[in-house]
Amino acid sequence: MPGENLSRDEARERAELLSVDGYEVELDLRSAVGDSTEAVRTFRSVTTIRFRRTGSGDATFVDLIAPSVSAVTLNGRALDPAVVFDGARIAIDGLADENVLVVDAQCAYSRTGEGMHRFVDPEDGEVYLYTQYEPADARRVYANFEQPDLKAPYRFAVTAPEAWTVWSNGEGERGADGVWRFAETAPISTYITCVVAGPYHYVTDSYRRGELTIPLGAMCRKSLAKYFDADDIFLITKQGFDFFHDNFDYPYPFGKYDQAFVPEYNLGAMENPGMVTFREEYIYRGKVTQAAYESRANVIFHEMAHMWFGDLVTMVWWDDLWLKESFADFMGSFGIAEATRFTNSWVTFANNRKAWAYRADQLPSTHPITADIRDLEDAKLNFDGITYAKGASVLKQLVAYAGRDAFLEGARRYFKRHAYGNTRLNDLLTILEETSNRDMKAWAKSWLQTSGVNTLAPAVTYDAEGRITELAVVQEGAELRPHRAAVGLYRLSTDGELVRYARVETDIVGARTVVEGLAGEEKPDLVLVNDDDLTYCKVRFDENSLATLRGHLGDITDPLARALCWSALWNLTRDGLMPARDFVAVALAFAGRETDIGVLQMVHAWTKSAVTLYAAPEWREEGGRLLAEGGLRELRLAEPGSEHQLTWARFFAAAASSDADFQLLEGLLDGTAKVDGLDVDQELRWALLSPLASHGRADEGRIGEELARDDTATGKRHQVRLLASRPSAEVKAQAWAQVVESDALSNALVEAVIAGFVQPSQRELIAPYTERYFAAIERLWDERSIQIGIDVVRGLYPGLQDNEETLAATDAWLAEHADAAPALRRLVLESRDDLARVLRGQACDRLAG
């Protein structure tokens, strides 16, 4: 047997053999508290599975990853665990037409965010549990058939410490015997079942719509209760239910709706029906910008959309992961733009989410939105920018192509036709053809079944008087796709604003499309292809438009158009077509005028990457100085107490590089320096202390003093990160050992150590670890959980050693490890591609020097 992996072929064969009538899962979680002498702390899990044989054959297997199995009984016949259990699967044979399997196991609590995660709050010593399963970690908690198309109803019963409360997908209560019993669920997949248990702070509300009442709950650790803004979470939740009920015409089907904000979470959130889990970083301990609240609202809507796209109707296998994730990602921005205070969410989408998609779609591992998922390791890595952000972008294009009404009517029919079932691509396309009268198969072939991103560029000719004689859109790419797009013409007004004066929406087909309706217009200062961001593409500019942006980007009045131009300039920089120092110059000239805080934060991130990665190494010091000077200038100019001031404070801290910069940061921390209106709260204190640690101006004692001010789980993560960031060979050796040579740290602390270890200002210090990285990664991949493996392989790749020698070392590893796990090779290939892109960008920038 192939260990913990599961192939698509095995899942298909099992689905042809059997169907599942139901699960009864009993968990005893009392071992989560108190002292334990076990090397691995475990809990008892007893699972009863009732299933029928529907195909030929009398043998199959059940998935379970556990330290030990006490008993296995099939139809009253005892099986020897030592014979049938191999650590990942239980082999069963002699199946009858109707079967009852009982598995009594000792399962392990997790410290890596997979399965049943156990967390001890350092602030008060309380223990908290939650589960996280996607794509296939329910088998770490109970025995099951771990694949999405074998749906079944579940009954959970949980014994927990007396002071705890327990939640699951359905309504539950504690019985007289102390056992929490939960109502049977609707038929759902294994990966969206859920248990949350512990002394959580819990707040309730309800949503009402006609005769429908949905009990609402929201929870977090007790030590975070003072920061918990449950009222705003409930407000967004109710607005979400209004939006989805208005547009989906299918009442929420899973009873109650709890939302748990949990510690050390690997994901942003997870759509367990009736019990959604979120990373607790969405509870804000200090002042944050509206972009942070918008991000949280988007995630709330995203997970709620999954109640229909993914939970009610689920893909057959992970090939069609887009059927849930792309739709939820699209609905997040679509919904909050129409139903909440975040009416500019499409600006954030264009500038932020699409950047993720553009990067992923240019990697050697890019894939069609409907991917070829051979096994679970493939599935884990396909929760990526293609499946989420490109998929959502393509759905936005679909709405423009088919029409909003046809799209939403298609969704309504899809839910009613396939409720509680499993679907493939053609099931949705058939319905969309009904509602749109469009050839959806041809559309899907171009957009869903091919990979890569197109570039769209204007080609304009003028007459002697400067009027347009022809404007065409030139498309490049391996697959020339049909685009429904808008072309906007902008010019500088007498008061210096760059405003749109003409717009045409058109179908772009093939390599060159003449845009009708713009001939005769006066010469524009800016031609913006994909105005209003209707399609998915990289935008290029003609020379006149690019010159206009260099001098007037901040004068564009429309925030979406401005965001599209920022994104296009960054793509030019990443593609080695615009020198990094030129992007920095534009950013320093106009970022201070950016009104959209989310766009500003993205521009800050790109600008720092431009200097630390894409700029020629000999210009880095000068570029860093310019960033720090520009950041401080804008910090002092920002409105006191504003979110822009806070954003510029964080940017300045990240860019600080001189003695004067560090002295100001030290003064802000000890109170001897002030910036009018800037509230230096605890989260900002950590941000100000970070560069002091990485530049050797804050030692272990000083970092410890800050932890004493903030002796919390969040404070501990900051402390661990800062300790690993200090510029010392001894420190780096210790950090490396903590992550690579030991598995003692939790997932959150592994992430913190990696973030501290990798510092752009310490390239020479960490150079010796390049060889050690390539020597260690295959062993790490085999020994650690897949999530920790991903974090380490991506996070410790020696990309800061930006030279041809590192590329050669990467190529040598790939050549010598042709038989390594495909998922591991994919991670290394992606990192190599990022490095090669960086080197091309540096070459471009060097020519500008």
Overview of the structural elements:
With 849 residues, the chain is an alpha+beta fold. The protein is 43% helix and 20% strand. The strands form seven sheets. The chain has an eight-stranded mixed sheet with strand order 5-4-7-2-1-10-13-12. A five-stranded mixed sheet has the order 15-16-17-19-18, covered by helices on one side. It has a four-stranded antiparallel sheet with strand order 8-9-14-11, with no helix packed on it. Strand 8 and strand 9 form a beta hairpin. Helix 25 runs antiparallel to helix 26. The mean pLDDT is 96.
* Spatial arrangement of strands, main beta sheet: 5-4-7-2-1-10-13-12
CA distance, first residue to last residue = 58 Å
Taking all residues together, what is the mean pLDDT? 96
* Radius of gyration of CA atoms, rounded to a whole number: 28 Å
Number of strands: 28
Features of the shown structure:
8-stranded mixed β-sheet; 28 strands; 5-stranded mixed β-sheet; 849 residues; alpha+beta
